[in-house]
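Sat 14:20. Reprocessing the chain from the morning session after the first attempt stalled halfway. Input below, unchanged.
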Amino acid sequence: MGIVGTMLIIIGVSSYMARKRYRFLLRIGILKHWLEFHIFLCTLGPILVLFHTSYKFGGLVAVSFWSMVAVFLSGIIGRFIYLQIPHTIEGRELSLNEVREMKTDVADVLKNSYNLDEETYKLLVKSIKQKVGLYHKKRYCSLFKKLFQG
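Finished this time. Tokens:
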């Protein structure tokens, strides 16, 4: 199981790196699917290595295992951060200016399609900003509670 787990890790890392770096692989699948495949293999690999050791660690094996766990955890945190970045429907990351333009466009569409007067429009925008702020505050507070309180 240890060799199979190690091979899964090597295949997961190598295939994803190759897909990102070599031009001839650009047409083989969507990068998002390659990333999911990489995450799957690099999650399954350490689990098989863990089963192989019968949960017994000592010496150099312990250092290697905990280094692997640190890399695994940093991958989970990196994936979480990556998911927080807004993307277009094609998968391209949006810049801050593009997000601001989208907000302005939505506000203009609301104002024009519903013929809102200026006072109602400002009230609506203000309430949306408050809701969005509260949503993010609650979301991140609950996330940190989960992470640090176990």
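The CA atoms of residues 3 and 70 lie 20 Å apart.
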